[in-house]
Amino acid sequence: MVYAYEEKTGSVSRWSSETRYRILLELNNAIVTCKSREDLFTALSKELQRHFLYDRLCIMLYDDKLHTITYFAAADGIQPSGIVARKSRPLADGAIARMAIQSKQPVIFDDLTRYTDLSSVGELVKAGLKSTMVFPMIVRDQLLGTIHFSFRSAPDGVTELTELLQALSLQIAIAVENMMAYTSLKNSNQHLLEEKQYLLTHGREYQSTDFFFASSQMNRIMEIVDQVAATDETILITGETGTGKDFLSRLIHDRSERRDNLFV
Q1: Is 29 in a helix, a strand, or coil?
Q2: Which domains, from first to last, does the chain contain?
Q3: What is the largest CA-CA distance in the chain?
Q4: Handedness of CA 194, 36, 82, 105 (dihedral sign)
Q5: Is residue 173 within 8 Å of residue 138, measured between CB atoms?
Q6: Is the pTM above the cut of 0.85?
Q7: How far apart are CA 79 and CA 261, in angstroms?
Q8: R_g of the chain computed on alpha carbons
Q9: Burial of 92 (C-beta count, 10 Å sphere; 0-12/13-18/19+)
């Protein structure tokens, strides 16, 4: 664990085992039904503010392939200038996040003014933030990113608060992982639906509404088409090249119960 603070003595314990369990339960209940990043982060910040005060909260996602960090959602609280909320940036540009990611341990600073030489710290100090607590989000040995709590002044009982937030960070990491998986699945399903709609709309070389006929032979063929379309059987259409096998197969599909599904 990386520390840069002086513990204040004489503080009264606020975080008993029972209290921690209750906070974890209430946090889980507050975020379990969220369906978007923004909803999850908003519910999370509101619930956390019920139990302790902070001046800035943000969650950073880490891309271990690109070695970049990006915001999970817009940060809550004080917004330092020079920090772009929706744009990914190299891990090297976030000194404190880098410490937590590389060490996989909490990083605690009670006086950021002593570390303004570190990248991004200067902007926090200019915005009035003097203390920060950063926790890695790890699920099944996978590092998802970091969660940051920042304060105008160092909070009392840092050791106990660190233990509490370390427990909360695990719960938050699980929620973030679930949200990322849900979002990925939702996007994949939407992409498949769009592809399906495109194929249904544009995948036909011939349109049945443009097909006109009058001969008795074609009337007989169309009767067979309707008979076959009413079944749920696999059929084989034979004939010379250019005789319209593809068009007949699409006519059968259009007149069958599968008309709203992709033509195979």
Answers
A1: helix
A2: 2-185 (3.30.450.40), 193-254 (no CATH)
A3: 101
A4: negative
A5: yes
A6: no
A7: 49
A8: 30
A9: exposed
Q: One digit per residue, pLDDT tens: the chain, 264 residues?
A: 554 544 444 444 577 888 888 999 999 999 988 989 999 999 999 999 999 899 999 999 999 999 999 999 989 999 887 665 557 888 877 889 999 999 999 999 999 999 988 888 999 999 999 999 999 999 999 999 999 999 999 888 888 899 999 999 999 999 999 998 988 888 888 877 777 776 666 555 556 666 777 788 888 888 888 888 888 778 888 888 877 787 788 788 888 887 777 666
**Count of Cβ atoms closer than 10 Å to residue 54 Cβ:** 22
Tokens of 45: 């910040």
Closest CA to 13 of 132, 154, 158: 158
Tell me which residue has tokens 């540009």.
Answer: 93
